[in-house]
Amino acid sequence: MSVEVTSVLIAQLIAEARSADPNECCGMLLGEGEGDRVTAIQPAANVHSSPASHFEIDPQALIDAHRAARAGGPQVLGYYHSHPSGPPEPSATDRRSASGDGRIWAIIAGEEVRFWRDMPGRFEALSYSIQDG
Q1: How many C-beta neighbours within 10 Å does residue 113 have?
Q2: With bands split at pLDDT 50, 70 and 90, how would you rate the model's confidence at 2?
Q3: Residue 1 pLDDT greater than 80, yes or no
Q4: Which residue of the set 4, 16, 24, 124 is catalytic?
Q5: Residues 76, 118 contacting (CB under 8 angstroms)
Q6: What is the C-alpha separation between 121 and 57, in angstroms, rounded?
Q7: Would residue 24 show up in a list of annotated catalytic residues for this protein?
Q8: Is pLDDT above 70 for 133?
Q9: How confident is the model at residue 115 (pLDDT cuts 50, 70, 90)?
Q10: Rounded to an integer, what distance in angstroms lies between the CA atom of residue 126 and that of residue 133?
Q11: Positive or negative: CA dihedral 28, 32, 34, 36
């Protein structure tokens, strides 16, 4: 399975990570319908007490995004966060906190973004394709 994104979206994710460094950035991946086409990101505050090594999306931002989706807005396809000092793959902390809900996770490290599917008990690596235009 492949996630569809634009080069602008990848650049936005990398810019968010740079802006938050040395802390982890975080937010939601938004899209239309049921597919795996990410059309926008929605940055959120990282409210974790140790933001340099953990992330917690501001609960109000999550509630607002889901309310907007129910009202006909973009759907919450998943979440993103950065690893300022680690690789762009799920950490042990990520694996412990994952819900196994099938949503997409984007993890940013340096200039690299990787996508993952949050499956019950594991993360599945996803390829992605750039769909500009």
Answers
A1: 21
A2: confident
A3: no
A4: 24
A5: no
A6: 21
A7: yes
A8: no
A9: very high
A10: 22
A11: negative
105, 90 Cβ separation under 8 angstroms:
yes
The per-residue pLDDT for range 65-96, each reduced to its tens digit, is 999 999 999 999 999 999 999 999 999 999 99
Q: For residues 24 and 84, is the Cβ–Cβ distance under 8 A?
A: yes
93's tokens: 């902390």
Edge-to-edge, what's the strand order for the sheet holding 104-109?
2-5, 122-130, 112-119, 104-109, 75-82, 26-31, 38-44
Which tokens is 43 given? Answer: 């940055």
5: helix, coil or strand?
strand
> Which H/E stretch holds residue 126?
strand 122-130
Mean pLDDT of the chain: 95
Q: What is the pTM of this model?
A: 0.95
Q: What is the rounded distance in angstroms from the CA atom of residue 57 to the CA atom of residue 122?
A: 21
Q: What are the E-state strand segments in 35-109? A: 38-44, 75-82, 104-109
Q: Kindly state the tokens that stand for 100.
A: 């196994």
Measure the CA–CA gap between 109 and 84, rounded to whole angstroms.
Answer: 6
Backbone angles phi, psi at 111, to 5 degrees: -100, 15
Which pLDDT score is estimated for 96? Answer: 93
